[in-house]
Amino acid sequence: MLSWIERAGNALPHPVVLFTALFAVVAVVSTALALADVSVTVPGTDDTKHITGLLTGEGVRWLVENLVTNFAAFPPIAAVLLMIMAVGVAEKAGLLETAMRATLARAPRAFLPYLVALVACQAHMMSDVAAIVLPPLAAVVFKSAGRHPAAGLIGGFACVTAGYAAGFTIGSLDALYTGITQQAVGVLPASHHVDVNILANYFFTATSSLVLGLLGGFLISRVLEPRLPAYELGDDAPEDDDIRLTPAQRRGLLLSALAVVAYAAVVLALWLPGGAPLRGEGGALVPSPLLSGIVPVLFGAFLLAGTVYGFTVKTLTGSEGVITAMTDSVKNMAGYVVMMFVAAQVIAVFNWSNLGVLLAVKAAALLQSIGLTGFGALVAFVLLVSCLNLVVISGSALWSLIGPVFVPAFMLLGMNPALSQAAFRIGDSATAVITPMNPYVFLLLALLQRYEPEARLGTLISRLAIFVLPFMMAWLAILAIFYGFDLPLGPGVGVGLK
After folding, report:
1. pLDDT single digits (tens) 164-194
2. Dihedral sign (CA 356, 362, 368, 371)
3. What is the pLDDT of residues 105-131, one digit of tens each?
4. Interhelix angle for 202-218 vs 417-430, to 10°?
5. CA-to-CA distance for 41 and 45, rounded, in angstroms?
6. Are 403 and 182 within 8 A, CB to CB?
7. What are phi and psi of 493, to 5 degrees?
8. How far apart are CA 483 and CA 496, in angstroms?
9. Residue 289: is the preceding peptide bond cis (ω within 30°)?
């Protein structure tokens, strides 16, 4: 099976090529349906939408006039780049890694697996860097506590990856998901009142990270570690880095924490009092400008914390250092920007041609015809995403591909777009830990061979597989509780459409 996954993944083209091919398919299909005078009526309305073809005179004019606008107005672009700049400063300054060291360094031996798992389930804030930084740190901490370092290494990576979209921290991943979801909402007519903000899944992801942290700790301690071969540190074994913090690092953490607390106090003072400028219409706390504008608020928090820490420990020197850190972080997103340019065109054509409406209505009708109209439909969707995630490892690429169909389809079934996004988070995380298409799996193998020279890919995958089904089932159980009891997924965001 792993060989098949590897071959299938290698056969897939680059996401840019994949989206370009999809654009061509959408252009041809929309034109063929337009010539056949196909139309669709959205259930519950009298609004009939006719399919319009891209390869027509009208379509060519529309594309020429809107190509740049499609890209410039694509919601994920600005939010993701803004978050990446701020998180990049915190990362370049060393704040994120130091915070991890401070969290893990003094953990009691018995609680260490649970703390590693809990921290790992918040690590998407660091983006892909978490898969590089946290596992080796966890190995060092386990070794210093007299536990098997490979358990910390493998367990840390598994919890970072299989719980990647969870967490009570907010980062660029949340901005990315939200932007694509909001764009997919626009596939349906008369959906302008449906707003998906970056905190739309916050209650769900925060709860999930706590549960998955406890579950991950149990799996590391009771399942993974007892099955590892005995480990003895020989004279020729590699030395591990000291994880203790220097006085300068401790001072930097303290000052950056104080700065963020002061910053948060100012933000709350602008939101909580009656008549505050960040309150919503009629003085409402939810919804409000604070929630709809949470990305710039988080940008300020990360930038302030990273700058204060960097100046304190001298990892950033003056404004030039901050600007360089922001610039370097954006440089690393060049491939993402190119991919989003093509994805933006595909989604825009879906919307303009009404092909997205047609597919959404047909998908909703199919789910209804086979009896999947409630939570069962979400479970089927999670399983589909989990399978696709084995070969399409990029979460943004996968969500951009299927979001414009399933978000409106679930909306037609009465589900909030935030619920579709929450379900996608599960499938997009759980199986990423075992696919050979994940490049960090091979990095992990190289790190594992530091402690087990005879370890091979099959050995590693078999140990990582321990986490897949328990994480998926626990996460689905959490989603079922939110769904069954109609609990808010985030501030002011329910599971159903109102």
Report:
1. 999 988 877 888 899 889 888 888 876 767 8
2. negative
3. 677 889 999 999 999 998 777 666 678
4. 20
5. 7
6. no
7. -120, 110
8. 9
9. no
Rounded-to-integer distance, Cα 401 and Cα 341, Å? 13
Look at the chain and count its residues. 498
Distance set, CA 126 to CA 22, 88, 123, 138, 389 (Å): 31, 9, 6, 16, 21
Closest CA to 421 of 78, 180, 127: 180
Asked if pLDDT for residue 215 goes beyond 80, the answer is yes
Tokens 């930097």 locate to: 252
In this predicted structure, what is the pLDDT of residue 66?
95
Q: Residue 412: which H helix or E strand, with range?
A: helix 395-412
pLDDT tier at 235, thresholds 50, 70, 90: very low
- Amino acid found at 195: D
Model pTM score: 0.76
Q: What is the pLDDT of residues 434-455, one digit of tens each?
A: 886 677 887 788 888 888 888 8
pLDDT digits (tens, 9 = 90+) for 35-57: 999 998 866 566 788 999 999 99
**AA letter at 362:** K
> Which candidate, 154, 161, 196, places its Cα nearest to that of 175?
196
* Structure tokens that stand for 85 in this block: 């700049």
Q: Rounded to whole angstroms, how far apart are CA atoms 204 and 214?
A: 16
N- to C-terminal Cα separation, the chain:
44
Sign of the dihedral defined by the CA atoms of residues 492, 496, 497, 498, in that order: negative
b/e per residue, 169-194, with b = 16+ CB within 10 A? bbbbbbbbbbbbbbbbbbbbeebeeb
Task: Kindly state the greatest CA–CA separation across the chain.
Answer: 78
How far apart are the C-alpha atoms of 338 and 374, rounded to whole Å?
37
Q: Please state the φ and ψ torsions of residue 90, each to the nearest 5 degrees.
A: -65, -35
Q: What secondary structure, in 3-state letters, does 170-214 show? A: CCHHHHHHHHHHHHHHCCCCCCCCCCCCCCCCHHHHHHHHHHHHH
Judge contact between 298 and 289, C-beta under 8 A.
no
Torsion over CA: 335, 338, 341, 346 (sign): negative
Phi (first) and psi of residue 223, to 5 degrees = -115, -50
Locus of tokens 């204060």: 308
Q: How far apart are CA 433 and CA 467, in angstroms?
A: 8
pLDDT digits (tens, 9 = 90+) for 273-288: 988 999 988 888 867 8
SS3 content of the chain, % helix, strand, coil (to 5): 70, 0, 30
User: Which tokens go with 192?
Assistant: 């302008």
